[in-house]
């Protein structure tokens, strides 16, 4: 025998009631022996409560009652419900007259919801020739007089239930009311919140039924509320202890009171979805699962009360007075926190009890408040309690770190004595982000990185396209969702919290101009509670780097191809690092030197491992490598190749930054600073390769006069000896253990058959000399510029940041 319980949403009009009848008829036709327990249909209980309130306020409830009747007789309009509605009308009239009602009257009114439900379901089954019988649980579930939340007399109720059910023929299915019962004088009582689940557990227990199927509107118990965490997973099987823990921390489909009768008799409870026949649901039984389950629950509708005062330090009996006063007025206390100095006590109570609790406490401590021993009894509203059930505090450190990185402010933290549940009190507005962050951390589930990309030019544009193309693969391989929520050009920004799409260029174009990109991005991320934020700077802007600290302070990690932040004045460079350290944020910029080549990583690893780097030398500029390689081997003028280098995306936005040596100098300085040298940009000796006449004016003007550069380079080429090539090199030497190194950027003629002379295309070469490697340097060669390779390097930095999460 099985007991089937259906909740209100399952019994609502339309698909719900249709599916319920289909489920029941299939089982009965298949000769399964079942008994059925029902809630009120849809939102009937709330609607009846509303009718009571209307009547109490002497409002016209009749119209609402007519509407309620209409709903309740769907889909069988011929159903005779006069008895229930006559009673409701009389009761409501009485309430209207007296402008008041008791809890006893309320129970009788609410009971009509369940009575109507069993009447409808029985009639629908009878109509398809299924034998069933309406059963009013008030006839055998006996309680005390505590109307609204009555306590069941287990012995009497068991005896009466068994006897009553025995009177029903074996081929007739009992359709029993949930939630309602009666006292010793047969007055209607109700069993409190989620009473139908409790009725179902009790009846199964009384009748020795070993399995309950509980039909709801959800697929079962999830690792977190799927409305908050889109990739929350169904928990297929849990044991009673785990279910009790989940129930006591607010998992809405489970209730401690309903689980106890199951544990007592080893009854399994299978939570199923009325609307999803295919779903396996969650099975709760006494089976011991190999691995303890974890789930994140959220309790809302709570407030945090703080009692603060230096006059209560070490004073005995304060806590006792707080808690006995609250207990006397029936207020449940959740998390309690007290500093060792006892300068204050904080605890969580239900929001609905806030005013009452505050009044009682202010009264209890009025003398202490007068004497200023207690400075405040204040309340923090808009908070939530996030509980990770099944999480041991010992393994929680990384999660806390991760929450901190995501700027989630934890007001209180509490772990249970069993050590397996951790509760965090946080601001309500941060719940979504916090639960997602915790969920991805403890379940290793899909982690989402929310990415803002500033600069959508050569590198930025390629990066966006690479991310869009590769995101499915990354999701598959790394369980990592790369979600670009913002793209900013110089004037416009495009936002989409769910990720921008392939036609981003058109969508961006259609946007209005925006000022203050940094403020807009930060505000958007905050408004939508986005976690794991990364800002990618693909501009060459000097102004934009001033906002890096603001991004860091607002929870962003940084990736940049822009070299400016690393080549500002040394104190600014240091300040940025301090801010990163303070806020536990990462900043990766591998593409700053050698585009996609692993230069910075190699040098950093060598340096951090204690290897003494003595010199770094090479061709650091991809565009100049390309220019000199092509120009030396051709009769075409220099400007011809310069235009091609621009087209190929090798040069800086203003190509003169390459030709004047600034770009190589920046790279050199970045490497020097990786070695902890304190050089400034001004310390670098740079040979400028732009003729005087072309140095002034903006980029456009330079490009108009670009041919003016040709005589200068032809003269250089003409002076070159046979078998020699021109190389524009960066050289970091000197005593690199001192405060500053010697940094040179210069044009040199070198033998064609040397390592540097052998370069082709836009390749760069980096020779890293160290104490261990002596005169055989570590050499890294490869494409040193270009949109695709640089974008790939930025992509790599982004994945490295994701790995640190
Ligand atoms: N092209 C290459 O091979 C490599 C480039 N880089 C670096 O990548 C960065 C980007 O270079 P490219 O893409 O080649 O330049 P680009 O000129 O094609 O793109 C830069 C974009 O940033 C935009 N921009 C400038 N200031 C902005 C601001 N404040 N807000 C929003 N957008 C802004 C510009 O309008 C432009 O669209 C530069 O810092 C460069 O040094 C680094 C390694 C290699
Ligand atoms: N303009 C630069 C691009 C990479 O940083 C170069 O040519 O190397």
TrEMBL record:
UniProt cofactor(s): a metal cation
SUPFAM superfamilies in the record: ACT-like, Carbamate kinase-like, Glyceraldehyde-3-phosphate dehydrogenase-like, C-terminal domain, NAD(P)-binding Rossmann-fold domains
Pfam families: AA_kinase, ACT_9, Homoserine_dh, NAD_binding_3
Pathway in which the depicted protein is active: Amino-acid biosynthesis; L-threonine biosynthesis; L-threonine from L-aspartate: step 3/5; Amino-acid biosynthesis; L-lysine biosynthesis via DAP pathway; (S)-tetrahydrodipicolinate from L-aspartate: step 1/4; Amino-acid biosynthesis; L-threonine biosynthesis; L-threonine from L-aspartate: step 1/5; Amino-acid biosynthesis; L-methionine biosynthesis via de novo pathway; L-homoserine from L-aspartate: step 1/3
Entry annotated with the keyword Amino-acid biosynthesis: yes
Substrates-to-products reaction catalysed: L-homoserine + NADP(+) = L-aspartate 4-semialdehyde + NADPH + H(+); L-aspartate + ATP = 4-phospho-L-aspartate + ADP; L-homoserine + NAD(+) = L-aspartate 4-semialdehyde + NADH + H(+)
GO molecular function, one term: NADP binding
A GO BP annotation: methionine biosynthetic process
Xref: InterPro entries: AceGlu_kinase-like_sf, ACT-like_dom_sf, ACT_Aspartokinase, ACT_dom, AK-HD, Asp/Glu/Uridylate_kinase, Asp/hSer_DH_NAD-bd, Asp_kinase
Stretches assigned to the ACT domain: 307-391
Keywords recorded for this protein, A-Z: Amino-acid biosynthesis, ATP-binding, Kinase, Lysine biosynthesis, Metal-binding, Methionine biosynthesis, Multifunctional enzyme, NAD, NADP, Nucleotide-binding, Oxidoreductase, Sodium, Threonine biosynthesis, Transferase
CDD domains with a match to the protein in the record: ACT_AK-like_2
PANTHER family, sorted: HOMOSERINE DEHYDROGENASE, PTHR43070
Family: In the N-terminal section; belongs to the aspartokinase family.
Known function: Bifunctional aspartate kinase and homoserine dehydrogenase that catalyzes the first and the third steps toward the synthesis of lysine, methionine and threonine from aspartate.
Assembly notes: Homotetramer.
Name listed for the protein in its UniProt record: Bifunctional aspartate kinase/homoserine dehydrogenase I
Species name: Putridiphycobacter roseus
């Amino acid at each position: 025998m099985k007991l089937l319980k259906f909740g209100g949403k399952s019994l609502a009009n339309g698909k719900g009631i249709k599916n319920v009848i289909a489920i029941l008829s299939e089982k009965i036709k298949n000769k399964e022996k079942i008994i059925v327990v029902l809630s009120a249909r849809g939102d009937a209980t709330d609607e009846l409560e509303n009718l009571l309130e209307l009547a109490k306020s002497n409002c016209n409830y009749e119209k609402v009652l007519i509407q309620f009747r209409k709903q309740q007789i769907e889909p069988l309009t011929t159903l005779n419900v006069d008895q229930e509605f006559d009673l409701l009308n009389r009761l409501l009239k009485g309430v209207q007259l007296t402008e008041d009602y008791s809890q006893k009257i309320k129970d009788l009114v609410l009971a009509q919801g369940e009575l109507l439900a069993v009447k409808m379901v029985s009639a629908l089954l009878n109509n398809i020739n299924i034998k069933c019988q309406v059963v009013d649980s008030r006839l055998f579930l006996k309680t005390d007089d505590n109307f609204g939340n009555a306590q069941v007399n287990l012995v009497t109720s068991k005896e009466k239930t068994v006897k009553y059910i025995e009177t029903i023929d074996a081929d007739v299915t009992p359709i029993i009311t949930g939630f309602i019962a009666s006292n010793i004088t047969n007055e209607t009582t109700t069993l409190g919140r989620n009473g139908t689940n409790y009725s179902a557990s009790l009846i199964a227990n009384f009748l020795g039924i070993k399995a309950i199927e509980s039909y709801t509107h959800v697929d079962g118990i999830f690792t977190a509320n799927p409305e908050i965490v889109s990739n929350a997973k169904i928990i297929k099987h849990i044991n009673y202890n785990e279910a009790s823990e989940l129930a006591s921390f607010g998992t809405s489909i489970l209730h401690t009171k309903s689980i106890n009768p199951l544990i007592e008799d080893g009854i399994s409870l299978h939570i199923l979805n009325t609307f999803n026949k295919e779903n396996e649901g969650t099975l709760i039984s006494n089976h011991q699962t190999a691995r303890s389950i974890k789930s994140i629950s959220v309790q809302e509708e709570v407030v945090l009360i703080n009692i603060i005062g230096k006059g209560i330090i070490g004073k005995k009996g304060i806590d006792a007075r707080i808690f006995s006063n609250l207990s006397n007025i029936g207020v449940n206390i959740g998390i309690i926190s007290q500093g060792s100095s006892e300068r204050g006590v904080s605890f969580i109570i239900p929001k609905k009890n806030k005013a009452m609790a505050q009044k009682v406490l202010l009264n209890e401590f009025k003398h202490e408040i007068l004497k200023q021993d207690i400075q405040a009894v204040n309340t923090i509203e808009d908070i939530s309690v996030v509980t990770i059930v099944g999480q041991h505090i010992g393994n929680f450190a990384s999660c806390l770190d991760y929450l901190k990185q995501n700027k989630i402010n934890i007001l209180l933290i509490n772990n249970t004595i069993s050590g397996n549940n951790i509760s965090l009190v946080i601001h309500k507005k941060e719940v979504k982000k916090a639960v997602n962050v915790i969920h991805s951390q403890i379940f290793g589930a899909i982690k989402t990185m929310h990415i803002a990309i500033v600069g959508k030019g050569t590198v930025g544009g390629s990066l966006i396209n690479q991310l869009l193309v590769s995101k499915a693969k990354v999701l598959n391989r790394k369980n990592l969702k790369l979600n670009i929520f913002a793209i900013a050009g110089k004037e416009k920004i495009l936002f989409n919290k769910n990720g921008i799409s392939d036609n981003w260029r058109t969508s961006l174009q259609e946007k209005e101009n925006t000022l203050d990109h940094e403020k807009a991005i930060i505000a958007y991320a905050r408004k939508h509670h986005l976690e794991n934020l990364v800002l990618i700077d693909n501009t060459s802007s000097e102004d934009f780097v001033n906002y890096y600290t603001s991004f860091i302070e607002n929870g962003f990690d940084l990736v940049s191809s822009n070299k400016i932040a690393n080549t500002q004045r040394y104190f600014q460079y240091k300040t940025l690092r301090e801010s990163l350290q303070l806020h536990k944020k990462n900043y990766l910029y591998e593409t700053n030197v050698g585009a996609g080549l692993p230069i910075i990583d190699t040098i950093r690893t060598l340096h951090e491992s204690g290897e003494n780097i003595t010199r770094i030398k090479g061709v650091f500029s991809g565009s100049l490598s390309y220019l000199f390689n092509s120009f030396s081997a051709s009769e075409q003028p220099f400007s011809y190749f310069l235009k091609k280098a621009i087209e190929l995306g090798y040069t800086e936005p203003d190509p003169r930054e390459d030709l004047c040596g600034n770009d190589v100098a920046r790279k050199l300085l970045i490497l020097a600073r990786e070695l902890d040298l304190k050089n400034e940009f001004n310390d670098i000796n740079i040979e400028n390769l732009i003729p005087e006449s072309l140095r002034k004016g903006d980029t456009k003007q330079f490009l108009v006069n670009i041919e003016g550069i040709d005589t200068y380079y032809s003269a250089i080429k003409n002076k070159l000896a046979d078998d020699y090539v021109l190389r524009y090199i960066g050289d970091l030497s000197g005593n690199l253990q001192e405060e500053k190194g010697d940094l040179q950027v210069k044009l040199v003629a070198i033998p064609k058959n040397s390592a540097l002379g052998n370069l082709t295309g836009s390749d760069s070469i980096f020779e890293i000399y160290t104490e261990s490697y002596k005169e055989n340097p570590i050499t890294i060669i490869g494409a040193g510029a270009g949109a695709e390779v640089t974008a790939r390097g930025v992509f790599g930095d982004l994945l490295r940041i994701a790995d640190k999460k």
